[in-house]
Amino acid sequence: MLKIHHIRNATMLIETEKAVILIDPMLGEQGIMPPFTLFRHKARKNPTVALPKNTTSLLQKVTHCLITHRHPDHLDTAGIRFLINNNIPVICSIKDKNILQKKGLHIVQALKYWEKQSFLGGTIEGIPAKHGYGFIAKPMGNVIGFYVKLPNKKSIYLSSDTIYTAAVAKVLKEYKPEISVLASGAAQFDVFKHLIMNVDDILKFIKNSSGKVIANHLEAVNHCSLTRKKLRNILIEHKVTTQVLIPEDGEVMVID
């Protein structure tokens, strides 16, 4: 059995009987960061919502952390402080290893794209990710997804902040993850194209998934325009609601 705790934005916990894996800790207080967009969407300070009340008790159980990239809505100052203070073993991209070590994080594994390593008795593999359509992807920098297979557990694909690419299609069609986590907020700055999948590609991802899809990166940072309600209506329209879970902040999903 897996317990997947959705905290906020991309921050979540994957809990097994032996480990509790923290994903992309954005743990700062509501409104501590400036808006990420001023004109395209309402200029609200980030995060736009507070952490769920049970966050502190959940964090006390963390044994490992996966970091997909260093943007502040995935790894903020409070997240870094938590990882350092508790000496949490961190797994990240090889491209982020040196910078994160200099910040004081305890990096125990660093992966290249398509590299598979042992992890908690199973395996973890680095999956390519591209953070944006067109020009904007280059300044957005390095991002990595993870494909995790733990003993006697459903396989998990953490796609991270990415558009739909050949690498994403390969994982969905060849690896056939039983659980996929999809950044679904349709994030966009005041200029340039979307930073993560637009609605068409969100639907393509879902339709090409053989397992359940957990939609996150919703309603927590101000440059994400797609709300849970809008996403549900789109899924109803395209008759794919049974495949997708859209957790509220603080919700736990129990998956056999």
Sheet with most strands: strand arrangement: 6-5-4-3-2-1-14
Structural class: alpha/beta
Q: What is the succession of H and E elements? A: EEEHEHEHEEEHEEHEHEHEE
Q: How is the CATH topology named?
A: Metallo-beta-lactamase, Chain A
Low-confidence stretches: none
CATH superfamily: Ribonuclease Z/Hydroxyacylglutathione hydrolase-like
**Share in β-strands:** 25-35%
> What is the number of independent domains?
1
Count the DSSP helices: 7
Provide a descriptive summary of the structure in words.
The chain has helices at 55-59, 77-85, 97-102, 137-140, 166-175, 199-207, 228-237; strands at 2-8, 11-15, 20-23, 64-66, 89-93, 106-111, 116-119, 122-128, 144-149, 156-158, 179-183, 212-216, 244-245, 252-255. The chain is α/β, with parallel strands linked by helices. The chain has a single domain (2-248), classed as 4-Layer Sandwich (Metallo-beta-lactamase, Chain A), CATH 3.60.15.10. A seven-stranded mixed sheet has the order 6-5-4-3-2-1-14. Strand 11 (179-183), helix 6 (199-207) and strand 12 form a beta-alpha-beta unit. It is globular. The mean pLDDT is 93.
